[in-house]
Amino acid sequence: MTAQFDWPGPPIHVIGMGMDAGAFGQSARSALAEAELVIGAAAHLAAFPELTAEKRPYPSPMSGLWDVLRASAGRRIAILASGDPLFFGIGTTLLRHLSAEHLVFHPNVSSIQAAFARLGRPWQQAQWVSLHGRPLASLRAALHNNRLYALLTDRDSSPAAIARVLMETGFGESKLWVAEDLGTQTERFHSFQAAGLADADTGFSPLNVVIVETCGPGGVLPEFPGIPDERFSTGVEPGKGLLSKREVRLTILSLLAPQAGEVGWDVGAGCGGVSVEWARWNPGGEVHAVEYHPERLEHLGINRERFGVVANLHIVAGRAPEALADLPDPHAAFIGGSSGDLHEMLDAVWARLPPGGRLVASAVTEDSRVDLHTFAGDRPAEWTELSIARAERLAGQRVMRPYLPVLLMKLEKSE
Prior knowledge:
Rossmann fold; seven-stranded mixed beta sheet; 12 helices
């Protein structure tokens, strides 16, 4: 986060425009009337021809706004924003530089709130997803069946593109409502079914929001921890390859016990079984997946995109421990692949863990088991061994085919 600046002038008023320009409360009206400098989008500024204050459009790129503000420090400043400035709005940007005591926010009706009003549906249970300036694939991380979503869009997340994601994920029967140019004379509000919209040649205003009600068979994206092995891309037969088995993954994640706001490392991530599930079920945390093998990196990237964890799963191409040098210190770390250097990996990761950090490591070979026991020494460790067998057909009969046992070690660094 950028260091906050000790603002020398009066507080900056950030005024939400709402759907009707000028539909402000008295405090917002007063702040706008007293301003010496008004900053906003060109359309916002044009709505107030009577103002005698200096009017200045937002800089492009928006990162230049702080330079504009600093150059005007000491003046009475009003910033015009859309809807609620603190809901996916400019308020977040301002708070990176200024403390709340230097800002006065005047919220108004947001575009999403207005869209639900047009639809005539309660919106307190809707899940909000901003695709504005974010990869469309991130929508995959949020989708579940029989849910209501409110989507903030941009030119790369058009209603048709959203409908195609719904089709690809088994939600072709979903309903979509598209609200365009809300609060203007060209406002439109239409409903669609995903299957019909995905390939339709329908044009939309770039100023739109989308409401989605998911329905359909689904089944493509996981809705509960324990993604089937065959859903992962590994480059070989589905469910095979360098991928921790589902039963092992779930045990690893339960030992790691990820929490929102934490940084995690998956060292020797392979095709991403652990790191993808880790990032998907803990969207409020960050996971760094370290892998050096080119083919595994390719499939790690495919799985990151496939399951929509593009926002919080970061792929680090390189060999540990050298590749760990520039990463933020982890709160929890898993070592799943070491290429025979497990003890060196354990030392490197342990040194970077803060007090209270958790380290989980796996071993299959006898050599790696010895490394785990040697490293643990007299430290209080939690040990788990998993022996898994799955059904296969042999000569027309069902047999249970065992996999190699996996030893898991968990250590927590003392305070």
